[in-house]
Amino acid sequence: MKKEYVVRSIDAAPDGAPYVVVSLSSVKDLKEGTGSPPSPFGGPKVMGFTNMNDMMKDLNKMFSGMGMGMQSGVTQLKLEMHEYKEMGLSVGDKVYLELTKEETLGI
């Protein structure tokens, strides 16, 4: 399986280790969006509620929109510094990820 992504952000390791975290967004997700790159904080979103039950049901959506929850549609890779420098990645670059399953013979 081969998928196309766009580099969304490149961040230093949170623990100061010699690696970077590269966040990727699917090209399909970006095309379905507004066309502008998404904010790492989810951008300002206003949600209207007609009653308390609606508010409680949509609470997780509200938090994820403010960057407090899991970012949907984002794939993150941890690359060692030499891998990152070798690839020369920058925000906005198109990249491809290919996943293959090892074929085993026998039992």
Structural class: alpha+beta
Could you give the order of the helices and strands?
EEHHHEHE
Helix content: 10-25%
Q: Please outline the major beta sheet.
A: 4 strands, antiparallel
Whole-number mean pLDDT: 75
Measured by DSSP, the beta-strand proportion falls in: 25-35%
Tally of structural domains: 1
- Cross-sheet strand order for the largest sheet: 3-2-1-4
Radius of gyration: 18 Å
Q: Uncertain runs with pLDDT below 50, 5 residues or more?
A: 66-70
Q: So how many helices?
A: 4
**Strands, total number:** 4
Q: What global shape is seen?
A: extended
For the termini, the CA-CA separation is 25 Å
Can you describe what's shown?
It is built from four helices and four strands; from the N terminus they run ββαααβαβ. It is an alpha+beta fold and 107 residues long. The chain has one domain (2-98). Strands 3-2-1-4 form a four-stranded antiparallel sheet.
Can you lay out the helices and strands and say which pair or pack?
Elements: E1 2-12, E2 19-26, H1 27-32, H2 52-57, H3 59-65, E3 74-80, H4 81-87, E4 94-98
What's the short story on this structure?
By secondary structure, this protein is of the alpha+beta class.
